Amino acid sequence: MVDNLMGMTANMVPGPDGEYADHISEILDNTLYGNSISPDCPKILGPDGGFCFKKDKYGYTLGVGARAGKSQFLTKASPRPHMKIKADATWGGQNVLKRNKWIDYIGTTETGNKNVIFGLNFAASDHIPVTKFEDNEFKNIDPESFGYFFDPKPKWANVKDCGNFPCTAPWNVLLTFKGTKWTGRSPSFAKTTF
């Protein structure tokens, strides 16, 4: 994947074992480039740049579990945005990412937007499963590029969702790292390998 808007993700819908089962999504052996030589505002299209792509960019949007979802084999056009969650979260599950590489995440794009490795699904209000990283590599990463995790949205405080207090999934994110390599620039909290 190169220079993507929301990057990749793997969301889970429980099987017959139910929403508390330890269902697992795995993402294996990928290479993700956070930046490319393709400009976000091409000058070739006119003096003002013509078209400018002014969006935050993520390499991986943390996967979630939901009680219901669309079939993996879609038979008709799916309404956008595709990643919107339309059911309550499941309480079991975990995301596992192994042997992936993240390269050239620069912190801020040429248009001043975020260019980060990890981001949250904008509709994940209830629960975000543990995300485990094993034997991944992060190369030439700006210290500001580790991730962007936002506060719960005030509109999540409603009777339908979480009552008078907003749901707190964005405050309860857990990422674990094993066998991880950082090369080049590293966040101040990162060791060469941990």
Task: Report on this structure.
With 194 residues, the protein is mainly β. It has one domain (24-183). 0% of the residues lie in helices and 26% in strands. The protein is built from no helices and 12 strands. It has a 4-stranded parallel β-sheet, with no helix packed on it. The chain has a 4-stranded parallel β-sheet with strand order 2-5-9-12, with no helix packed on it. Strands 3, 6, 7 and 10 form a 4-stranded mixed β-sheet that branches. The model is unreliable at 189-194 (pLDDT under 50).
Concise synopsis of the structure shown:
This protein has strands spanning 24-28, 31-33, 57-61, 94-98, 101-105, 107-108, 114-119, 130-134, 137-141, 147-148, 175-178, 181-183.
Secondary-structure element sequence? EEEEEEEEEEEE
The biggest sheet amounts to:
4 strands, parallel
Number of helical regions? 0
**Rg measurement, Å:** 18 Å
Protein structure class: mainly beta
Strand content: 25-35%
Mean pLDDT: 83
Ranges where pLDDT stays below 50 over 5 or more residues in a row are 189-194
Q: Classify the helix fraction into a percent range.
A: under 10%
Taken from the alpha-carbon principal axes, the silhouette is globular
Number of domains: 1
The tally of strands reads: 12
* CA(first)-CA(last) distance: 25 Å
State the strand order across the main sheet.
1-4-8-11
Features:
194 residues, mainly beta, four-stranded parallel beta sheet, 0% helix, globular, disordered C terminus
Write the layout of secondary structure elements.
Layout: E1 24-28, E2 31-33, E3 57-61, E4 94-98, E5 101-105, E6 107-108, E7 114-119, E8 130-134, E9 137-141, E10 147-148, E11 175-178, E12 181-183
Parallel strand pairs: 1-4, 2-5, 3-7, 4-8, 5-9, 7-10, 8-11, 9-12
Antiparallel strand pairs: 6-7
